[in-house]
Design brief:
Layout: E1 3-5, E2 12-16, H1 34-54, H2 60-75, H3 84-89, H4 99-118, H5 124-145, H6 150-164
Antiparallel strand pairs: 1-2
Helix pairs in contact: 1-2, 1-4, 2-4, 2-6, 4-5, 5-6
Length: about 170
């Protein structure tokens, strides 16, 4: 059994992780160094997100739109506010120039760009950057407002961007 990382300090919570939290971006607190914890959490979160998206939707477009369903489900879990990825994205106790967070953002943008390419976006890199802004803003909004359904608004904006074509 692994244990959840408390992102607001460098200690370990004694709350066991559920099976769903083991793949949703929660850090393994066996090593409580913040950079190591964030790196591990980021790797697991990206792997989990990629797997979830690969298993959703019959078309590339639907898989891209499923991003928001997956995030909404994650936002509704007890693990979401305790995730090191959540804390780092929200800027809680992290230097925004942190190389681990920069690597996480780059990997997230690449995942989004790959999805945008598969979905036939006119400019996948541009759409990926726009989606990343939405992902990060939605994470912060869901955390602060405690409102998982914010992801639905981001899904609507993604549909508009996909339908708009070239700028």
């Amino acid at each position: 059994m692994s244990w959840a990382f408390a992102p607001f300090d460098s200690s370990v919570r004694s709350t066991p992780r559920t099976a769903s939290s083991q793949s949703s971006g929660m850090a393994n607190a066996n090593n409580d160094h913040p950079s190591t914890t964030l790196r591990q959490s980021s790797e697991r979160w990206l792997e989990w997100l990629g797997e979830e998206l690969a298993n959703r939707g019959d078309t590339p477009r639907l898989r891209l739109l499923a991003l928001w369903d997956v995030l909404e489900e994650w936002f509704a879990t007890d693990e979401f506010p305790a995730s090191a990825v959540t804390a780092a994205t929200a800027g809680l106790r992290r230097d925004p120039r942190d190389p681990v967070m920069a690597a996480h953002r780059l990997a997230t943008r690449q995942l989004l760009e790959d999805l945008a390419k598969e979905a036939g976006a006119h400019d996948p890199a541009r759409l990926a950057t726009q989606l990343q802004v939405l992902v990060e803003g939605t994470i912060v909004g869901a955390l602060v407002d405690r409102e998982p359904r914010l992801a639905r608004h981001a899904r609507e904006l993604t549909e508009i961007a996909l339908d708009a074509g070239p700028p």
